Amino acid sequence: MMSEPKRVHPISMFIDFISDAVSMIKNFIIPFFVLIFVNSNSSIRFYAFIILGVLLLWKAVFTILEWRRFTYRMEDDEFRVESGVITKKKKYISLERIQTVNTSEGIFQRIFGLVRVQIETAGGTDGPEVSLTAITKAEAEQLKQSIFNRKKSLQQEEMTDEAGDLHDHIAAQKPVQEEINVSYRMGVPELLLAATTSSGIGVIISGCLAIYTQIDEILPMDGFFKQFSFLSHASVEIYAILIFLAVLIAWILSVGVTALQYANFAAKRKGKDIIITRGLIERHQMTIPLARIQAVKIKENILREPFGFATVMLVSAGGSITEKETSSVLFPLIRKKKINELLSQFTDHYHVAPETELKKVPKRSLKRYLISYGFVPLLVGVILSVRIPPWGYLALIPLPLALFFGYLAYKQSGYTIKDPLIQMTSRGIGKTTGIVLRKRMQNYTMTQSFFQKKGRVASIHTFVKSSALLDSFGVHHLEEEDAARVFDWYSYEKNESS
């Protein structure tokens, strides 16, 4: 077992400095932009550059000292890290608490043949428990094997101590199960199709709007708008062309982002672990033990659904609250008819029931879905039509689309129970299906508003652990008796286990 203190590779000093410098500049970019570029006083500009230089120099010196003081080792069944420049910090992590050891390769790590290692523990909330910025691939693999081999030995020793010789005798009589090894790799055609049908365009547009609102508050934009004042007299056709071009550019950007994110995507099951690798510029590797899987989530956006494609995700416990997603993508793009075949190879319990087996919401719930989806667009459309005719009439255009999605939600929402699994399907704009093991359900809630009670319908939800958060699945406006039936099925398990 590794017991001698080790340091990360020296290139980590440069990587950490660049990362911290970018973060610092990002936090102060608006005041520095105003002081350096907008401000006309040369003295203030000079002192602004001096302050920026001093801050960067201080950060460089501090980063070197941090690298000198940072060491890691394994000792006495613990992963030990010592760090700190002003205050010395010691962090000892029991190997039994370690859930995953993930690796990633940024641009600088790839140049020098290194990897970043992130160690996550059960109950982590504010990022990985330990992050090793840059170590060799051989060291990372040795570290990973050392941690999990020793962790496995500790678990076996604990089982032996508890069960005694009788347990050993029975275990010796059992046939050894063959280790399962399967893999899935995303090809270039699938990557291009996934990129062109992704829903990332909404993220790009909302991000641009957020940046615009911030810049508009800080920087004088009047001069910029004057350059385009001629557009105030433009025809409807010109506005339509400009909107089309803006949407096209946002779509192209979303295609590029998705392609970079899922390039070289591969998933592999090795024994009781699923190993996922992805990324072109920065490569990520994530290991998910089967025991951590809490649910399977299947998402179908409006571009993929008509062609029979979906995205399959794993909701897993552990991880950190800073992770952007509560789920890990297992298959970024897959034909729905192939999901069960691959799920049976990668997981031990999960499968998708056909839509014909779902217990759908009752017909009297149709008006509730139409009202839920159509009320806000109708209200906004009416207000704008009254306040700013005739342009306000355009605000009524989304209403038929909202009613259409409301009808789809009514037709597709439902649940089915295939003990010990429950499958729930619901819809916002896209369709989401959640498949949960009963023992993984953190709770089950059945809610009824005043109007739902009069209509003898109810909404149901269940929550599962996801990273440091909770993920949920539910069905709205379900038959009251069906909601109670799901409660009886869930509470039976709780009573049995208590």
UniProtKB/TrEMBL annotation:
Which ranges does the record mark as transmembrane? 21-38, 44-65, 191-212, 238-260, 369-386, 392-410
Q: Which InterPro entries does the entry mention?
A: UCP026631 (IPR014529), YdbS-like_PH (IPR005182)
| Record's signal peptide | none
Q: Which organism is it from?
A: Bacillus australimaris
Organism superkingdom: Bacteria
Which keywords does the record carry? Membrane, Transmembrane, Transmembrane helix
Task: Specify whether Membrane is a keyword of the entry.
Answer: yes
Question: What is the protein name stated in its UniProt record?
Answer: PH domain-containing protein
- Per UniProt, residues of the YdbS-like PH domain are 67-146, 262-344, 410-490
